[in-house]
Each structure stands twice: as C-alpha cells, then as structure tokens.
Specification:
By secondary structure, the chain is α+β, with helices and mostly antiparallel strands. It contains 4 helices and 5 strands; from the N terminus they run αααβββββα. The protein has helices at about 1-10, 10-50, 55-100, 165-175, and strands spanning about 105-110, 120-130, 135-140, 145-155, 155-160. Strands 1-2-3-4-5 form a 5-stranded antiparallel beta sheet. The longest helix is centred in the middle third of the chain and has 45 residues, at about 55-100.
C-alpha cells in the first residue's frame, strides 16, 4: 500500500491531468446526450401537438380519430365537387346547344348594283350558324329607292335562287369556318 501512496505522490500532476481530461470528456458526452434528449423531446411535443401528456396508445388512437374526421371532410368535399361538376356539365351542354344555333359565320360583300351609282352602296350579308343555316340579307341601293331582301339558307344552300353577289357573301361566310 505504501508503494501505491508513493506512486500517487510522485504522479499527482499526471493523474490530475488525466482526471481533468476524463471530466472534460464526460461533460462533452453529457452535452451531446442532452442535445439528443432535447431533439427527441421536441419531436415528441410535435407528435403530441398540444394534446398534453399521453402514452403512445392514446396518441395513435387520437391520430386515428383525426384521420377519420379528415376522411369524412374529404368525402363531403368530393360530393360537393361532383355535384358542382354535374351542374357545370349541364350548363355547358345548354351553352353548347345555344351556341350551335347562334351566328358563327358572317360573310359580307359590297358592290355597285347599278352602273350609274358608285361607292358600293349595295351589299349582301350572310349570317350562318354552326350548321350553315341562316339568312342572307341583301340591300340594293338606287337613286330613286332602296330595296332590302332576305333569303333563307339551309345547309349552305339558298332556298331561293341566289344572285352572284349573294353567292359571294355566302362563300365568304363558309370560308370563315
């Protein structure tokens, strides 16, 4: 035992340095463990999200209830979207039906109906829908009087005989397709 005491007395500086290094190492390990524990605590708090103290079973049950609530909300929203899509489709169908019979093709031709009149005061105007049905309006301007005619068009053909100018207006409308 006396040899041990002599060793301690002669090597006390070395032992102090070794113990000091061991204490610093222990503090480093303790600090690293404390950081890991804090990170784990933050994750656990995030997992609980303000639900207080719970065990894992209660936490999982709580999350399951949240999932069910969200699934119910998703189903409600899907039903609303579905009914909204149906309504939108009906409105779109109505618009498509109405637009099929609306004026979509227009042909216009100006000309001089008489040799003694200039400035192309007469005209023929073709107004057609998507099925090439509609009318041609012709206005003939003269010094003494003006006359306006309307002729019905079915499937790009006149029900009455068309003049050359009316044919030009009809061709221009059909080209506008």
């Amino acid at each position: 035992m006396e040899a041990f005491m002599n060793f301690i007395q002669t090597a006390n500086v070395v032992l102090f340095i070794v113990l000091l290094i061991a204490v610093v190492f222990c503090f480093m390990v303790l600090s690293q463990t404390n950081r890991k524990l804090n990170r784990l605590r933050r994750r656990y708090d995030m997992l609980l999200r303000g639900r207080g103290e719970m065990d894992m079973e209660a936490l999982i049950a709580s999350h399951g209830a949240d999932i069910e609530k969200n699934a119910d909300k998703i189903r409600e929203i899907q039903e609303e979207i579905s009914s909204s899509e149906n309504l939108s489709q009906k409105k779109l169908d109505d618009i498509m039906k109405k637009s099929a019979i609306s004026i979509q093709k227009i042909g216009f031709h100006r000309y001089n109906a008489f040799d003694y009149i200039s400035n192309e005061m007469s005209f023929s105007l073709a107004l057609l829908d998507s099925r090439s049905n509609g009318i041609i309006i012709t206005s003939i301007f003269g010094r003494e009087s003006s006359t306006t005619y309307a002729k019905e068009i079915r499937k790009a053909r006149g029900l009455q005989e068309l003049s050359e100018e009316e044919k030009i207006a009809l061709e221009r409308a059909l080209r506008e397709n």
